[in-house]
Amino acid sequence: MKVLLATCASLPSGDGDDDVLIDALAEVGVAASWSVWGSGESADLVILRSTWDYPERLAEFRDWAASVPVLANPAVVVPWNTDKSYLVDLAGAGVPVVPTSVVTPGFADWPDGEFVVKPAVGAGSRGALRVAAGDFGAASAHLDALGVPALVQPYQATVDALGETALVFLGGQYSHAFTKGAMLTPEAEYDESGLFIVERLAGASPSGAQRRVAEDALDAAAGLLGLRRNDFLYARVDLVSGVDGAPLLLELELVEPSLGFRQTDASAPLRFASAVRAALSARVA
């Protein structure tokens, strides 16, 4: 069977993190290759990977995703998860989420303390601004410049010391985790493609509390979308620590997340390959 790993024209062979996947899939008899999304190529399964130019071509990307006969993650995920207002849905389902408001230009009821303003549709932290306490003029100017719906969230100061913990699930089962250093800092810089801020990554061992929140977030998302958790070929659950130390969901990435294969054990790509085979088997069952 033929599998395509969908990417964008700026990264025709992905960003490097997925380099191991072609060989891992070949080991279990699955022929895979890279393909720029929208190119018209067909396959038994198309897997969304580094499609990171979609915010600028959102309608086109969503239409393309809906047209793909067999997509992973499923096409129903794409319109929901490419708009970060899904965090409000998950909070309503009982998931502990970083407090999130969805606002539009002209909003003025800014929170106390440091906070973040970022576009509701975005990738790679593009358009995200960390706002100093009380600097409402900068926040309003940024929101007006974005010109689109945005999220407002209190900045979680624990990130500066602890970073984020990203938990990766393959086929609905926990696989591995890694940490990401604070990104909204004066030292942040974009990679040469301009699509994402360069991240400082390292392997991690999540706590039981973190795994519980991550699994609850996945289950809630599946319920909202009419799916089962194992319908997600992959998922990345990004958590931060609240002021009380309890884990909070920052993002649930179900469309095009980096999965941290360079930060974990060599068997993780094989777990991904097995999850792909399971998805292919379900297609022909």
From TrEMBL:
Q: Ranges for the ATP-grasp domain?
A: 87-281
What top-level branch of life does the organism fall under? Bacteria
Q: Does the keyword Nucleotide-binding belong to this entry? A: yes
User: Which InterPro entries does UniProt cross-reference here?
Assistant: ATP-grasp, DcsG_Biosynth_Enzyme
Q: Does the keyword Cell membrane apply?
A: no
Q: Name one GO molecular function term.
A: metal ion binding
Question: Keyword set for this entry?
Answer: ATP-binding, Nucleotide-binding
Q: Which SUPFAM superfamilies match?
A: Glutathione synthetase ATP-binding domain-like
Spell out the protein name for this chain: ATP-grasp domain-containing protein
